[in-house]
Design goal:
seven-stranded parallel sheet; alpha/beta; 9 helices; about 15% strand
């Protein structure tokens, strides 16, 4: 049975802009009637606008928004209460898709030796700690679902180092390892780290304009970005084929 054959609950973090917003659009077009799509983000107006847009295109699904998804100070009680408040929309769903998309690139103008504890702590709260907490809340909330799939939005830079991106590379590598461990601890859960390719997002432009490394800056300035819709559709194809080994890191350019 395919991931989108029956009504499903799909949850996307960082849903209100960039690749997260595009992912929600592509995912919503795949969802069967009576499915629920949950948008987690921190910009209420953007989420409301996105919900209205998606609802007009896919009126047969339920769309929920949680606009207090502040990764650097995640209110886990509010997030859990949000899911509890909407139990009526989840109780009959036997499948879950959780996409961990939220994240930031850090300050590419700084080198390893420029970093201080407050900056590192803040970065890890946004990009790792809040992800781990959200993952636990969701997987425990939906523990009774027969079919669970968790996607970690990764990067080639989880595998190779880059000047001026020490926190980004390190955290992406840590996330990949976390999800490899999740895959072996939860063998009934399908887990994938997907590197969507370099896309023209806020993070892409930050590196292009602010990196202290001239070589990296020029590489991004000359780069032809991956189309966000194409990358989102490749992820959907991966999920529908369901041939990846749970815990794997798969790149947009791998197929």
């Amino acid at each position: 049975m395919g991931i989108f054959d029956l009504p499903i609950c799909a949850i996307v973090t960082g849903a209100n802009r960039g690749f997260g917003r595009e992912l929600c659009s592509v995912i919503s077009s795949e969802l069967p009637a009576s499915s629920t799509l949950v948008l987690l983000g921190r910009n209420r107006d953007a989420l409301e606008s996105e919900k209205k847009e998606l609802a007009s295109k896919t009126p047969s699904i339920n769309i929920l928004i949680f606009h207090n998804f502040e990764c650097n100070r995640l209110d886990t009680q509010s997030l859990l209460q949000f899911f509890n408040d909407h139990d009526n929309l989840f109780k009959d769903l036997s499948s879950l898709l959780l996409v961990h998309n939220a994240g930031s690139v850090g300050d590419p103008s700084q080198s390893c030796v420029d970093l201080g504890l407050p900056q590192v702590t803040d970065y890890m709260n946004i990009n790792f700690n809040s992800m781990v907490a959200t993952n636990s809340i969701v997987l425990n909330k939906f523990a009774s679902c027969k079919h669970k799939t968790v996607i970690n939005l990764s990067s080639l830079l989880a595998l190779q180092p880059s000047k001026s991106l020490s926190l980004y590379c390190s955290c992406k590598a840590a996330r990949d390892m976390f999800f490899k461990i999740l895959a072996i601890e939860q063998p009934l859960c399908r887990v994938l780290s997907y590197a969507p390719g370099p896309m023209e997002t806020t993070m892409f432009n930050q590196i292009k304009n602010e990196s202290f490394d001239d070589e990296l800056k020029k590489m991004f300035q000359d780069m032809v970005p991956v189309n966000m819709t194409d990358s989102a559709k490749k992820l959907m194809a991966l999920l529908k084929e369901d041939k990846f080994t749970s815990g794997d890191h798969v790149d947009y350019f791998d197929f």
